[in-house]
Amino acid sequence: MIKFFVAASNKGYLNGLAQEFGESTNAIRKELNHLAAAGYLTKNKENNKIQYLANTAHPLFSSLQKIVHQHLGLEFIAGKVIERMGDVQTIALVGGYAKGIDNGLIEIVICGKELNHDYLLGLSTKIEDQIDRHVVISVLKDIPKEGIILFINELVD
Question: What does pTM read for this prediction?
Answer without folding.
Answer: 0.66
